[in-house]
Design brief:
The chain is an alpha+beta fold. It contains 4 helices and 16 strands. The chain has helices at residues 23-41, 87-95, 129-145, 172-189; strands at 2-3, 6-7, 14-16, 21-22, 46-50, 59-61, 72-76, 79-83, 98-103, 116-123, 151-154, 160-165, 194-195, 207-210, 220-221, 237-238. The structure holds adenosine-5'-triphosphate (ATP) and manganese (II) ion (MN).
């Protein structure tokens, strides 16, 4: 069987043992969202979670190996990285068993000039969904006060991601520095609610604002990527209005409604002219 010109081997292989989701369902999903995803991940260096058997034995892959001829590969110092530039390369990843696509905050060839900032909000154990949503809103408000437009997506796991597009202008160091200041602003304003401390034992009863993904080489799961977790949840772009309607892992490969494939909430993301001053 061929999808986007790629021969799909073992189409019936079950990648999600609990829900019985097969490789061909995953491949067809990626065929359906290919254009939506490419709009975002095209030319972004990737790291992927690949599962040869099923989601229980996935591994994180940052460097291309045997598939080198079917992705776009580039050298960074003496390390090789890869990105996808079209549907064929994207589907080839799925054929190789890729389930999750994580991307850098910059695009090839100017990988040293980031253009996407992400804040990852992770709830501590006893944080309710309501409080997590409040946290997301607090962060959005800080960004809005700085006249920065931000965009929301579910992580497909435990939290939400708030994403801020920028025109390429600054280096990674100033980029990370800015994101750190934002996170610390939240922490200082509401010390009982938020922490920027990476140590897990400091997160109890708090929401961890992870700004460390704004570092050269760090990655975040891409919009519309599936997760290699029970029920194949998706990291879905949401409108701010929909924050209260969907929990982080609510939307999955089986229940995603067609409205999300229009990707209206992020329409302006791609035309943003925001500059980090
Ligand atoms: P959640 O909402 O559940 O926190 P998330 O996407 O925010 O989901 P993780 O899935 O824990 O968070 O991934 C965090 C980041 O760590 C990923 O974006 C990826 O860059 C990196 N990562 C994930 N898995 C691995 C791994 N096995 N080895 C190294 N880095 C990883
Ligand atoms: Mn997270």
């Amino acid at each position: 069987m061929k999808v986007a010109g790629i021969e799909i081997t073992s189409p019936e292989k079950v990648l999600y043992p609990e829900s019985g989701i097969s490789k061909i369902e995953v491949v067809k999903y990626y065929e359906k969202v290919a254009d939506l995803m490419l709009r975002f991940i095209k030319k972004r260096p990737l790291a992927v979670i690949r599962c040869h058997e099923n989601i229980e034995n996935g591994f994180f892959k940052k460097h291309p190996t045997t598939e080198k001829s079917s992705v776009s590969v580039f050298l960074d110092g003496d390390e090789e990285y890869f990105y996808v530039k079209n549907k064929k390369e994207l589907i080839f990843q799925a054929q190789m068993g890729t389930i999750e696509f994580h991307s850098w905050g910059s695009t090839y060839p100017k990988i040293d000039t980031p253009n996407m900032m992400v804040f990852d909000l992770d709830p501590g154990e006893d944080i309710s969904l309501e409080r997590l949503r409040e946290g997301v809103q607090d962060l959005k408000n800080i960004l809005t006060d700085l006249r920065l437009q931000s965009f929301l997506k579910t992580s497909g796991g435990k939290g939400y991601h708030v994403v801020v597009p920028f025109k390429k202008s600054r280096d990674w160091e100033s980029f990370e520095d800015f994101s750190k200041k934002i996170a610390q602003l939240l922490e200082t304003q509401f010390p009982k609610k938020y922490t920027t401390n990476i140590r897990k034992n400091q997160r109890h009863g708090k929401i961890f604002i992870d700004y460390l993904r704004n570092t050269r080489g760090a990655t975040c799961v891409a919009p519309f990527s599936l997760r290699a977790r029970s029920n194949a949840p998706i990291s879905v772009p949401l409108s701010w209005r929909d924050l209260k309607s969907y929990a982080p892992a609510d939307i999955n490969i089986k229940n995603i409604s067609d409205k999300f494939f229009k990707n209206e909430p992020w329409e302006e993301f791609y035309f943003s002219t925001q500059v980090l001053k």
